[in-house]
Structure formats: C-alpha cells, structure tokens
Amino acid sequence: MDIVPALSRWVHILSGVMWIGLLYYFNFVQVAALKAAQADSTAAGITKHVAPRALLFFRWASVATWLAGAALLGGNFVAAFTFQGVYAIIGMGAWLGTIMLFNVWVLIWPNQKKILGIVQASDEEKAKARRTAFLASRFNVMLSLPMLFFMGAGGHAAVFFH
Amino acid sequence: MNPLETLWGTIIAGVVLTGILYFVVRALVGG
Fold first, then answer.
1. What is the DSSP string of chain A?
2. Do B25 and A88 touch (CB under 8 A)?
3. Which of A2, A42, A77, A137 is the most buried (most CB within 10 A)?
4. Looking at this predicted complex, what is its ipTM?
C-alpha cells in the first residue's frame, strides 16, 4: 500500500463528507428552520449557536477536501485539470469541486460574516449578503450532483464511459 | 424563474447538468 494515496483518499472522503454534509444541512434543513424560527422569534438560537459552528467546520472541511484531493491526484494533477484522456472524468469532478471551494470562500463565507454580525453591515447590506450567500449555496448544491458523479466515476471509467 | 429558488428546482438542475456534462466528458475521453 502506498501510504500517501491511501491517506489522502481517506482524508479526501472524510472531509468531503463533512463539507457536503454541512452544505446539505444548510440547504435542506437550516434555510427552512430559520424561516420557521423567525416566525416565533427563536432564530437567535440558530444564528448565534448553530450557524457559526456549522460554518467553521464547513469552510475548513472544504479546504481539507481540496488539498487531500490534490494530493491524491499527485502527478496526474495537470492531466486531470486539462482533461487529458481518461483523466477528463476525475478532472471534471476536480473542476466542479474547485468552483465550489471558490464559492465557499469568496461568496458564501464573506457574506455569512455580514449576516451573522461577525463584521459590521447595514440592514441593506445584510439583505444583499443573505441573497448572495443563499444563491451561491444553492449553486453549490446543484454542482454537487455532477461533482459527486464524476468523483465516483473517476475510478470506474470502464463502467461509466464505454 | 430561477430553479435555485427551490430545492426541487436545484436538484433537477443538478441532474440535468450531470447529464450534459456526462456527454461532454464522454466526448473528451473519446468513448
């Protein structure tokens, strides 16, 4: 057993489960829960105690997933990202994951900081941040479907692509 | 209407995108 690919695959899957699991938590659970909680004035429990913790693990799991994925690609990194031959399969998954990582750190997290009051923002800025973070998060849910397909298909080209 | 407004719209958009990208990648692989 080659230790680096074995460990990086393990870490990639572990942190990937945490990242996408929390992404699905936000979109399938928290968005609807916040709406209901705002109606009976209990939203602070979520925005103060749950969301910041969930976002902490969410954003750092995204980094760990990407780095472990890059380590796993190893010498095939360029071949994957330039869609060379059979590496186009895992390459598509890698590109989708990279776009999702970008969305986490450039669109979701900076806007969530405004929404949760970690950085100062006016009510108007918060409303705009809420909309941007929501759409970026939903966009990542959409991308997660093909991303997971190509991640899974990458090692099984003969099954999926012939 | 933006499909990302609803969860079902998001999932359907993801499935459609998966189908489109499947054929793109198949062409790239040469299968």
1. --HHHHHHHHHHHHHHHHHHHHHHIIIIIIHHHHHHHHHTT-HHIIIIIIHHHHHHHHHHHHHHHHHHHHHHHGGGHHHHHTT-TTHHHHHHHHHHHHHHHHIIIIIIHHHHHHHTTSS---HHHHHHHHHHHHHHHHHHHHHHHHHHHHHHHTT-HHHH--
2. yes
3. A137
4. 0.96
